[in-house]
Amino acid sequence: MQFIPRAIRDTVLEAGRNFPAVVLTGPRRSGKTSLLRRLFPGASYVLLEDPDTQGRARSDPRGLLEEIRLPVLFDEIQNVPELFSYIRTRIDQNPRKMGQWLFTGSQEAPLMQHVSESMAGRAAILQLLPFSVAETDRVTLLLGGYPEALALPRGRGLWFSSYIQTYLERDVRSVINVRDLATFRRFLALLASRHGQILNKTDLAAPLGVSVPTVSDWLGILEITGQIILVPPYFENFGKRLIKSPKVYMGDPGLACYLLGINSQAELDRSPFLGPLFEGYVAAEILKSQANHGRRKELYHFRDQQGLEVDLLFPSGHGGLWMVECKASKTPKTAMAGPMGALRRSMGEKAAVRCAVVHRQSSTAPPSRVLAPGIEALDVRAFAGILGGEARRISEDRPRSPRKRNKGAFEKSKPQV
């Protein structure tokens, strides 16, 4: 597949200009290594999944680091996190040289623990998720956004099967000792069937014959490896009794479709899971936009005990709030906006709220239109485009780092544009 520019590109390059180290996390096979090698073509490359390299890094870390020409890219640094302590010493010897140390990692929480302990203030931490709708029109609800699934759409089933058997199960084994991988695979399929629902761990544990703490451990593994999205409830003083549990989504819609046995667009269109799958698709697009522009991931849902529900809420720029209803229909209707209108009224007239019904694309309908006073209808691609523009404006409004840098080291690896 021809290289597709990533929306996070400028954020990564800015990080390289302002920090000695850049750590790029994200799910396996999301394109982290390809992106960094393209943005920093002059960097040395060290793969820390190679057993010989791992052994050398553990037995003689100083010797390894002294042999490497800077800048350098360490791929899958979570395999030898103890290197961070030695790299910190090297950074502190020449703290004004920026963009010298590049890292990728696939297990966010354990990796971040080592980064926070050893690299605080020295490393920019970013996350690369699979392709978004805003980056390429190849991304669909059926295929998802993983680069290899998009490159070979006819082989998507085999690719997702291999992904689960190799990468996911390997990550699971490296984080926690799962004795019965067959049960874990059943757990993945069961979790996919709860896509878009309020998380109920007891409901997941009972059919599998495992304990609730085991389910909690497995959910934690999937979250730190970027495979699921947990969306917490939105709390404000509305004078309402709220549902306080998170919603759960598979992180990639293509993987969710595979786990649900959906293999074609026709099957997807007939599936009872179409609505929840589309909702998760939109949720993933919001998080991708935030991550691509170096923003904190903030996404919520709202449901009270009287049945008022709004699918997704998240902050917009300058203190505002987005409310989004996700509809798999291609024909948005005014009634779909009812819950957002009710919640917005309960927040008061002064609240800066933007409301949208996000729906599937139609070849015969405009990508955006006014649905009701203060509420717009947007197809998913138009919505993703608006998010990207809004995120860029917020990023441009952020104060730039006052750090001075050594230009020569970074400019050597900066690509021609």
Residue windows where pLDDT falls under 50 for at least 5 positions: 401-417
Shape designation: globular
According to DSSP, the number of beta strands is 14
The residue fraction in helices comes out at 40-55%
Structural class: alpha/beta
Strand ordering within the main sheet: 9-10-11-12-14-13
Q: How many helices in DSSP terms?
A: 17
Rounded to an integer in angstroms, the radius of gyration calculated over CA atoms is: 22 Å
Alpha-carbon distance between the termini?
A: 20 Å
**What does the largest sheet look like?**
6 strands, mixed
Strand content: 15-25%
Calculate the mean pLDDT score and round it: 88
How would you describe the overall organization of this protein?
With 417 residues, the protein is α/β, with parallel strands linked by helices. The chain contains 17 helices and 14 strands. It has helices at residues 9-18, 32-39, 51-59, 61-67, 83-93, 108-118, 147-151, 156-175, 181-193, 201-208, 212-224, 253-259, 265-270, 274-292, 338-347, 380-397, 407-413; strands spanning 21-25, 44-47, 72-75, 101-105, 123-127, 197-198, 228-231, 247-250, 300-303, 309-315, 321-327, 353-359, 368-372, 375-379. The strands form three sheets. Strands 9-10-11-12-14-13 form a six-stranded mixed sheet, sandwiched between helices. Strands 2-3-4-1-5 form a five-stranded parallel sheet, sandwiched between helices.
